[in-house]
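Consortium newsletter contribution from the modelling node. Members have asked for a concrete example of what our holo predictions look like. Here is one, prepared for the phosphoenolpyruvate complex that several groups have been discussing at recent meetings.
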Amino acid sequence: MMVVMKAGHTKEEFDGVMRRLEEVGLSGHPIEGAERTVIGVVGIVYPELGDDLETMPGVENTVRISSPYKLCSREFKPADTVVDINGTLIGAGTVTVIAGPCAIESEEQLMTTARAVKARGGSMLRGGAFKPRTSPYSFRGLEEQGLKLLAQAREETGLPVCTEVMSEATVEVVAKYADVLQIGTRNAQNFFLLEEVAITGKPVLLKRGMSSSVMDWLLAAEYILAKGNRNVILCERGIRTFETATRNTMDINAIPLVKELSHLPIVADPSHGTGKWHLVEPVSLGMVAAGADGLILEVHPSPEHALSDGAQSLTFESLGSLMEHTATIAHAIGKRMEREAAQVTA
Ligand code: PEP
Ligand code: MN
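And here is the predicted structure:
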C-alpha cells in the first residue's frame, strides 16, 4: 500500500502517519516526489488500514499496490532510480560499463586490467575475491588479499569497485573494501544474505538466479529494499534452458519488461550469459539497444591463462572494440556512455 500525503502537509502530520504504521507493526518507506510525498507501507496490511489512514490529518488517500513486490515496483515509484556510486551513475539515461577479471589472480593481473578498463572508457572495475566455483577443486579466489588489491586499483585509477559476497560471514570484510556488493546467481534467493547485504547500506548488484523467473528476481530485490536499502542494480546474466550450445540463455525480453515493472536500473552480463568471448560484443549491443543501463564484462590480460572463465573473457583489444560499438548504439538510442572513452594508454 502507498499513503499519498497532501501537498503542503506538515512534518507533524507525516510523523503521525509513520508512528501509526509502527504501532500496527508495519514499516513506512517515504519517497519525496517533485509534487507529493508518498509513503510505501511494508508488512502484512489488514483490510481496514487504508480507511484508518485516510482519516488522519495530512493524508490525501491510500492506494493498494497490485504486484507482489511493492517497493521495487513502478506503481510505487514511477521515476527511474539512479544509483550513485561516489559520483558514478547507473540508470541516469547512460550506459555504464563495469569490467574486470572474473577472479583477481595477482597484483599485476588486476592493475593492468584496471588501467585498460579505465583507458577504454569503463566506469567501474569488477573482480572476484571470493569465487563461487562449481567444483571445490577449482581456484576459489584470493579472498581478503584480493579485496586489498581491488582497493589498490581503485586508489590508482579512481574507478569504484564491485565484487561478489558469498556468505553472511564475509559481508563485513567485503563491505569494508567494495563500493558495490555483488550477489551472484547461486545466491540470488539466499534471503538472509540479501538482508545482511542490504543493511550495510552499500549499493547491491543483484544477479538473476539462473532458474529465477522475473517475479522471483524482483521479489529477491524486494528483500533488499524492504531493509531500507534502495540502491539496487539488477543484472540479467542468462538463465538455464534446454540450450547447451551456449553457457546460458540471455533473456533479452527481461530488459524492457523489467523496465516496465520496476524503477530499478538493470545491467546485462553477456560474459556469463553466453560463456563465449566472441559472442560478448554482439550480445552486448543487443542488450544496450533493448534498454540496458549498463554492461558487466569479464576481461583478462591473457584469457588463455585465466584461472576462471577464460573462454568468456575479452582481451583488452576486444574490450576496446566493444566499447566503441556500444557507444554507437548508445548514441543511436539517445543515451551516452557514462564515461566517454579516455585516451588509450594501457
Ligand atoms: C561472476 O560475476 O564472476 C559470477 C560468478 O557470476 P554469476 O553469479 O552470474 O555466475
Ligand atoms: Mn565469472
